[in-house]
Amino acid sequence: MDCPLVFHGTAIHSVGLEQLEILENAALVIDTDGRISAFHKNIAHDDAALRVPGARLHRLRRGDFLVPGFVDTHNHAPQWSMRGLGQGLHILDWLDRVTFPHEARFADPAYARRVYESCVDGFLRQGVTTASYYGSRHSEATQILADVCKAKGQRAFVGKCNMDRNAPYYLRDESAESSLRETEECVRHIKSIDPEGVLVRPVITPRFAICCTPELLKGLGEIAARDPQLAIQTHFHEAEQEINATKELFPGFKSEADLYESYGLMSTRSILAHCTFMNDYDMERVQSLGCGVAHCPISNMTVGGGFMTAPIRQFLRRDIKVGLGTDSGGGFSSSILDNIRLAVIASNAQEVTSKGADKALSLEEVFYLATLGGARVCCLEDEIGNFEVGKQFDAIWVTTEPNEAMTVPEAEDSTRTIFEKFIMTGDDRNMSRVYVKGRLVKGC
Ligand code: GUN
Ligand code: FE
Predict the structure, then answer these.
(1) What residues does ligand 1 touch, defined as CB less than 6 Å away?
(2) TM spans, by residue (predicted)?
(3) What is the rounded CA–CA span in Å between residue 272 and residue 218?
(4) Structure confidence by residue, pLDDT tens digits, 146-200
């Protein structure tokens, strides 16, 4: 950035699962490195602290506010161009009939670049400042995805999807050995374009155990063990069809937790997508191994999770890390706001089916999942997720001038009411500017 930034006006962020801080006269100072160097929580518009030498001062009008950027903990970049297709199919049928033939197209680098540019633009427009991406199984396309994230300024984890069996011959990895070699190639490339991992980082991405031979899982665990910084992501206890097929392939394991753990793929750096069908044992393992959950409320009820939801209240009670995922492709929406709403609805249903034992999620809690909770899942809570001093400035400037969707703010509304209207009815038209690490990635 060419100069420091100062914002004065309303800032809203989570400081805990249920603690939403709403500050109507806040000031945030962002240094040229994109970090928050000061956060004044109550300051007058003419306070001397707003006069930072050389800085550009932005004053938010009443009704506008800053929130931290959204974190999408589970996203399939190649599925950007097939969102919404095959929504009633069970997971393995959907993969065979819709997804695998589509992902095969990413053998073509020109097609991959076109889709990935549109995908990253699309997510930034929706305020997704951090995404954990599965690529396709192709090394070149995956490297292009990382290049596109870096160029457009999105914070991202990018992984070559590993799959050396139970997929069509024209898509799957030729062998475990070639899959591992290409994975290391992708990790090297991503580290070469962003050596400090400031924006873009590699992530080990076995699609799920059904698509990976034991040899491949073992090799991926060894890569992860050699590099303690590497994140890991996979699909986990997603749907009955998937769980049964996994048991048939790996009869020696009573839970997917044991299976992935035995290959060294369950750690504090693991992002487990879905976690819908989870018994006490599975939850205990995920909790004690410190893995994070990517809750994908839309795809859980359309394709990915077997038309189910995940026991989020139980995860939170155990202090398991939980964030939200669009699972774009499996889910039809690329919007975290849509997923926030479905997370509320799914939790309402769960309150009923648990006879009141698992209380529905509050607005404060679902907003936390979309921001600070997601940051924890990605082990980035020291870097992003809220506006603490020292963190990087990933933020959405929300403009609540009504569009056709958003409930009109009224003069007597409290700031919390306007925030609630935005969360429950707003969309990307209410996101006038988006910043990642202080850089403007949407708006002007
Ligand atoms: N399980 C294995 N692959 C996929 C995928 O692409 N999407 C979802 N939702 N689940 C999967
Ligand atoms: Fe998925």
Answers:
(1) 76, 91, 95, 99, 207-208, 235, 238, 299, 303-304, 327, 329-330
(2) none
(3) 18
(4) 999 999 999 999 999 999 999 999 999 999 999 999 999 999 999 999 999 999 9
Top mutation candidate among 74, 76, 299 for ligand 1, by most atoms within 8 Å of CB: 76
Distance (angstroms) between ligand 1 centre and the Cα of 308 equals: 15
Question: Ligand 2 centroid to 26 CA: how many Å?
Answer: 38
Q: Which fold has domain 5-68+387-442?
A: Urease, subunit C; domain 1 (2.30.40)
Output the residue whose Cα is nearest ligand 1's atom 9. 304
- pTM, whole model, 2 decimals? 0.98
Closest CA to 173 of 163, 182, 181: 163
The answer to whether 392 and 437 have CB atoms below 8 angstroms apart is yes
Q: How far apart are CA 262 and CA 284, in angstroms?
A: 16
Substitution site in 102, 165, 207, 236 for ligand 1 pocket (most atoms within 8 Å of beta carbon): 207
- Distance from residue 103's CA to the centre of ligand 2 (Å): 13
Does ipTM surpass 0.90 in this model?
Answer: yes
Q: Which atom of ligand 1 is nearest to the CA of 330?
A: 9
Ligand 1, from 136, 234, 238, 241: best to mutate by most atoms within 8 Å of Cβ? 238
Residue whose entry in the numeric block shows the structure tokens 């596109």: 148
CB 377 within 8 A of CB 315: no
Fold classified for 70-377 = TIM Barrel (3.20.20)
The single residue listed with the structure tokens 């009815």 is 425
Look at residue 125 and tell me whether its pLDDT is greater than 80. yes
* C-beta neighbour count of 2 within 10 angstroms: 6
Task: Tell me if 5-68+387-442 shares its fold with 70-377.
Answer: no
Q: Which residues pair with 40 in a beta bridge?
A: 27
| Residue-wise pLDDT tens digits, 214-255 | 999 999 999 999 999 999 999 999 999 999 999 999 999 999
Ligand nearest to the CA of 86: 1
Nearest to 335 by CA among 430, 217, 200: 430
**Chain Cα centroid distance, residue 213:** 27
Burial (Cβ within 10 Å: 0-12, 13-18, ≥19) of residue 110: exposed
Task: Sketch the domain layout of the chain as residue ranges.
Answer: 5-68+387-442, 70-377
Closest Cα to atom 1, ligand 1: which residue? 235
